[in-house]
Design a protein that fits this description.
four-stranded parallel sheet, globular, 6 helices, 6 strands, two-stranded parallel sheet, 160 residues
Length: 160
């Protein structure tokens, strides 16, 4: 998950254009995704990922990371935490809408047997829900050198 220095994970309207990514971060993330067989998302993040990653590697200007992560994304099992989505028409995707503790523990046990990991990407609300019930084993937080509270305050003063 990316965070600003003052603890924000997105702008007031969900903006993430302030996030700094580079080849070093992409290489590091690749070492983590190589060890995972399941990607877990909240609904909003899943929809954002689904809109980009399935075809990202096929674009003429696709970077090495886009090509590699697109292949990983298409092949990895995906789990979405959502009370509004269902699995109809979703490829390689399971939706969990209730009993988080029980369902995620089942998922962790099945993943443990194959010695692979479950990754959650972004998904601040889903992460918070899992955190409250003790289901996150490890955190990777990429802290970006920006204070968004000041940016938000400044932008709000311009609008009034």
């Amino acid at each position: 998950m990316h965070s600003s220095l003052d603890g924000f994970v997105a702008g007031t309207k969900g903006e993430m254009n302030w996030i700094t990514v580079d080849d070093e971060i992409f290489e590091f993330v690749s070492t983590i995704t190589d060890q995972a067989d399941t990607a877990l998302y909240g609904r909003v993040t899943y929809q954002m990922m689904e809109a980009y990653w399935p075809t990202a590697g096929e674009k003429p200007n696709a970077s090495k990371h886009d090509k590699e992560h697109s292949i990983w994304y298409k092949n990895v099992s995906k789990v979405v935490l959502s009370k509004t989505m269902n699995e109809t028409g979703l490829r390689n995707t399971k939706v969990i809408s209730d009993n988080l503790l029980e369902n995620i523990n089942k998922l962790k046990q099945s993943s443990d047997s194959g010695s692979k990991n479950i990754l959650i990407f972004g998904s601040p609300r889903a992460s918070h829900s899992l955190l409250k019930i003790g289901l996150i084993d490890e955190y990777w937080i990429f802290v970006n050198p920006i204070l968004l509270d000041r940016v938000f305050h400044y932008l709000n003063t311009l609008q009034t």
